[in-house]
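Structure record:
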Amino acid sequence: MTRYVAIGDSFTEGLGDPMPDGIMRGWADLVAAGLAAGANEPVEYANLAVRGRLLGPIVNEQLEAALALSPPPTLLSLNGGGNDMLRPGGDVSHLVALTEQALRRCAEAGVRVILLSGADPSDRLPFGRAMRRKAETLTEAVRNFDQDHGDVVFVDCFHDTEIRKAGYWSADRLHLNANGHRRVAGLVLTALGYETEAHVIDPGPAEPRGVLAEARYYREHVWPWINRRLHGQSSGDDRTGKYLDWVKIKSGV
C-alpha cells in the first residue's frame, strides 16, 4: 500500500481551495485521491504542511515528523522556500542546501520523493521581478537533484506557463485557487506515470487592474501581509498540519 505524506507551506496545505466544511483541499489531497484511483486500492495519506512556514522548519521539523509516522511513508512530497524568498535578503544558496539535506534524509530512509518547484505568481505581484529571479535560481539549482539523491521525481510547476494566468490564482494573487490546485495535481500525477488530462480553463474576461481595483488589492492583501511582517507574525502561527496521522483515501480525482 502507498503511504503518501506531504510537507511544506500554504502551497501544499491547499490554501485557496476551500471545501464546504472550511478545510483546504489542494493539489496534495487531489494527488492522494489520484494515486488511489490509479492503483485501484486505498492510499494512506498525511499532510503536515502549514501556511507561512519557512523552508528550515519544513525540513527540520515537518520532515522528521513525516519520517516518524508509523508505519513509515513510502512516498513524500516536498516544496518550500516561497516564504523565504518573500523576505528581504533571502539566501537562495541556503534554500538549496536545505533541499539537498531533505533529499539525503529521505534517501537514507528509503522514501521516494516528489520534489516540486512552486507555481510562479510573479507576473501579478508588486515585488514580482525580485521573487522570480530568486525562484528561477532555486528551480535551476534543484532540478537535477533527481539524478543524485535516490528515488526523486522533480515536478517543475514554476515553468508551467499555463498556470501563470490569472484564472488559476486567488484574489491575493499569491495562492492558487481550486483551478490552480487541480492543474498542479495533474502535473504531479503525470510525472508519477499516471495518465492524467491536464486541467485547462477558459481564461474568461481580462482581470480588472484599474486604480480602484489595485487600491482594494493593496488594502485587503498587501498591507495585512506587511503588518504581520512588521510584528513578527505568520499566518501559520498556532496552526498544525491538517492530517497529522494516516487517513485512508479511497476515491480518485
